[in-house]
Design goal:
The chain is of the alpha/beta class. Helices cover 41% and strands 21% of the residues. It is built from 17 helices and 16 strands. α9 packs across α10.
Length: 512
Amino acid sequence: MGLSNRRVLLMDTTLRDGEQTQSVSFPPTEKVSIAKALLQKLKIDRLEVASARVSDGEKEAVKKLNDWARTEGLVDRIEVLGFVDHTLSVDWIKDTGGQVLNLLAKGSLKHCAEQLRKSLQQHVADIKQTVAYAISQGLTVNIYLEDWSNGYKDSPEYVYDMVTMLQDAGIEHFMLPDTLGVMSPDEVFDSLSDMIARFPATKFDFHPHNDYGLATANAMFAAKAGISSIHCTVNCLGERAGNASLAEVAVVLKDKLGMQVEIDESQFHHISQLVENFSGKRIADNTPIVGADVFTQTSGIHADGDKKGGLYMSALTPERFDRLRSYALGKMSGKASLAKNLEAMDIELTVEQQKRLLDRIVKLGDQKETITPEDLPFLVADLLERKDYSHVELLNCSITSGLDLESVVSIRVSINGEIKKSSASGNGGFDAFISAMKKLLIEPEFDFPELVDFQLRIPPGGQTSAFTECVVTWQDGDRQIRTRGVNTNQVLAGIGATLRMLNIKLHAKDQH
């Protein structure tokens, strides 16, 4: 059978092996929520949810999950790790209403001899005793050959003999872990091809780890070798460098090998965020498939190419994963990047306005500012309101604040081309700035307006680094002036609004 005609099952072990990640532990409510999402929304083929005999909380979670899964017809997809302990693990799983035991056995001579202090024959006898009891209790049994990758390399006859001796025990899947993540893709392909050729009637799973950063590649080569199931976790959770990424493996098998992977790709991002929130382990923004930035084009050239013919798009489209493509705004931005963002927000600007806006975005990008689409309306409003008055220009500003201390401002400004310096203290940086400016613009020559209202806001859903929009209302005699300032620094946003007010007043004065 060709690769493109073959289905590979995916088994998620986020809730069991993923819990071996440093400082990760899912309470019962979280474990059930993640399991339901994986089974019902993502439609995962198999789900390993716990280790038997760990705790009362674990038992409670597995029982609650099995009760729900039984009503949904999904209980046979839920699997629990158990141990070679005759009745103990089996009874624990039975008490929770479970149906599948994943039995942990020793897949290398070194582990068997040094950890168990037993011969292969003794270990197999114990395994058969536990398997026979599990089957008598109505459980399906799979078996992990722990440390199989080292066992196959160092003591292959041990591995062959173990599988041979257990072939007729009633075991469903023989699960072959690269426990320490030591294998390369070629080693995976060669070893699994050998195992499958030697035992053609046996179902083999592959369980990769990512210590060399090869987990996804190893999963791909395992599938090429003919493996029936591959084990993964959400967000690569797992001990040390983690396990294979569920999202990466599913997409690679489908796109690169043409295999049938029957899960709902549109749920990857949602479930990644769910696990991220519950685990407290944040993924990198450039994580394939699920990262925050993987569907963001930064280069203006790429945006231009997409606009003219989708030149920088691949099979990994954001729509495929229920996500949106975005075009970053910063020093690498071009006209096409800006146009894409304006179009998405239904904002229309003239060519000249777009040029001025792009100039400001590039300048901000040079200062390492992060400009998000949510910031864009503030910048546009600031642009449309701006008049090219330059009677007062702020050349330098230093603000010092402290707990229970007055703020101190030192400024250097140009007023009608004359450079002046001033400093003042006040109740906060903005108040100190106003005091410093009043020393330079002395009444009655200049009548400083009274502040009526001061409003600050950031974009909805904005981060702490988002732009701040400050709108200040001033009472200037019998009229009100309303000015806006935009900056990532809240005080400087207020200062920007003040400078705009001063320029409007000085311009009006010159006109008279």
